């Protein structure tokens, strides 16, 4: 096999390292970029460099931000006293999209997982307790919004147990049948959960 | 919705413009890059810039290359006198991977398509005829390797007709049952073609 362009080959190799991008999609992306104007490709490259250079973690909530504290922690219009605990910053993103929650966040930056050797000290639980002790934040409610899998459950139980010592209401988001689906397609674990968590009509 | 990082937002927007990358995959790629070292992200960005800056078309065969003429046209070990005609440079790539063909290529850079208003003059057919007239190349055989769809067929017929005036053998790659599949899963058009093109055992 003879390669006619080393530059193309290198670009394909680099792109194929991205998640969800096999060699074929990397090839398609490289060919697409070849057809774009130089300006567009420069913009893409520059954006990726900026992403890495200007983004860090908020020292309060732990989410990804260009400024510290992040615009959510820094926004006086966000309801003080309510904290939503999530596993990672992308969850903040997802919850923000619903426009449902007006409080602040706490990003754990991981989940307790004995199998992967991640204990309570490896995620931002201490930082959560510090915030609970802060008079400025005056936290009334902690909403747990972790993923409904074994690690998420274990971490939720762990945090809930810790917070028994604090004068704070601990809640969790509802797990049940997703909207717009048919019961037929729901797995048994979700259905059991939906029955156990039934509410008055 | 409150955005905590403009840089992340811009990166997701840019990545979502790539082919086969929706907003969700763009988000996944951006988050992945955030977790990489700055050096790795710089390498990726630099590679994309180089891709655009150093790659052009070979003036002989029309494929993508960093040097003109391309390493295939320039390789004295490649069989002179046999040209394989393909639609786009990625086809060169695919054929080279088989290590089956040792001649040279001619990339049309498109296909005759009345529906998309692409005629014979819009693709590199004139350049093919120039090569056929060249004494240096001394072409004995033109192998047509276009896609087996309506446009590929029409373009193959068109080129074949033009080449009747030249002292050159015109062949096409075999279309038939792909290796490793079962007849059960083959569409009728392919099966008909396989019967019509049957060869002596």
Textual characterization of the structure:
Two copies of one chain form a homodimer. Chain A has helices at residues 6-15, 23-35, 38-54, 89-98, 125-133, 150-163, 188-196, and strands at residues 56-57, 64-65, 82-86, 104-107, 141-144, 169-172. In chain A, the strands form two sheets. Chain A has a four-stranded parallel sheet. Chain A has a two-stranded antiparallel ribbon with strand order 1-2. Chain A is built from seven helices and six strands, in the order αααβββαβαβαβα. In chain A, α1 (6-15) packs across α2 (23-35). Chain A folds into two domains: 6-54, Orthogonal Bundle (Helicase, Ruva Protein, domain 3); 67-172, Dna Topoisomerase Vi A Subunit, Chain: A, domain 2, CATH 3.40.1360. Chains A, B: This is Recombination protein RecR. Chains A, B: InterPro entries: DNA_Rcmb_RecR, Rcmb_RecR, Rcmb_RecR_Znf, TOPRIM_dom, TOPRIM_RecR. Chains A, B: Keywords: DNA damage, DNA recombination, DNA repair, Metal-binding, Zinc, Zinc-finger.
Number of domains of chain A: 2
Q: Care to count the β-strands of chain A?
A: 6
What class would the helix/strand composition of chain A place it in? alpha/beta
- The average pLDDT value of chain A, as a whole number, equals 91
Largest sheet geometry of chain A: 4 strands, parallel
Poorly predicted tracts of residues of chain A: none
Roughly how many Å apart are the termini of chain A? Answer: 69 Å
Q: Which chains make the largest contact?
A: A-B, 60 and 60 residues
Query: Treating each run of at least 4 consecutive H or I residues as one helix, how many helices of chain A?
Result: 7
Oligomer: homodimer
Q: Reading side by side through the largest sheet of chain A, how are the strands ordered?
A: 4-3-5-6
- According to CATH, what is the topology of the largest domain in chain A? Dna Topoisomerase Vi A Subunit, Chain: A, domain 2
What is the level 1 CATH name of the largest domain in chain A? Alpha Beta
Strand proportion of chain A, as a percent range, falls in: 5-15%
Instruction: Write down the overall geometry of chain A.
Output: globular
Q: Percentage of helical residues of chain A?
A: 40-55%
Run of helices and strands of chain A? HHHEEEHEHEHEH
Global Rg of chain A: 22 Å
Query: What is the CATH architecture annotation of the largest domain in chain A?
Result: 3-Layer(aba) Sandwich
């Amino acid at each position: 096999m003879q390669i006619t362009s080393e530059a193309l080959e290198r670009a394909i190799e680099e792109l194929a390292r991205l998640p969800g991008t096999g060699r074929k999609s990397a090839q398609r992306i490289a060919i697409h970029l070849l057809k774009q104007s130089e300006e567009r490709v420069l913009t893409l490259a520059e954006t990726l460099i900026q992403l890495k250079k200007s983004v860090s973690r908020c020292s309060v909530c732990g989410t990804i931000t260009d400024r510290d504290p992040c615009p959510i922690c820094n926004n006086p219009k966000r309801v003080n006293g309510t904290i939503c605990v999530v596993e990672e910053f992308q969850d903040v993103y997802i919850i923000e999209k619903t426009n449902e929650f007006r409080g602040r966040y706490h990003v754990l930056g991981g989940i307790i997982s004995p199998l992967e050797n991640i204990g309570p000290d490896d995620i931002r639980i201490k930082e959560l307790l510090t915030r609970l002790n802060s008079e400025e934040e005056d936290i009334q409610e902690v909403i747990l919004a972790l993923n409904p899998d074994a690690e998420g459950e274990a971490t939720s139980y762990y945090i809930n147990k810790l917070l028994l010592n604090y004068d704070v209401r601990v809640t969790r988001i509802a797990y049940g049948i997703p909207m717009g689906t048919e019961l037929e397609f729901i797995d048994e674990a979700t259905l059991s959960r939906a029955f156990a968590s039934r509410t008055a009509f």
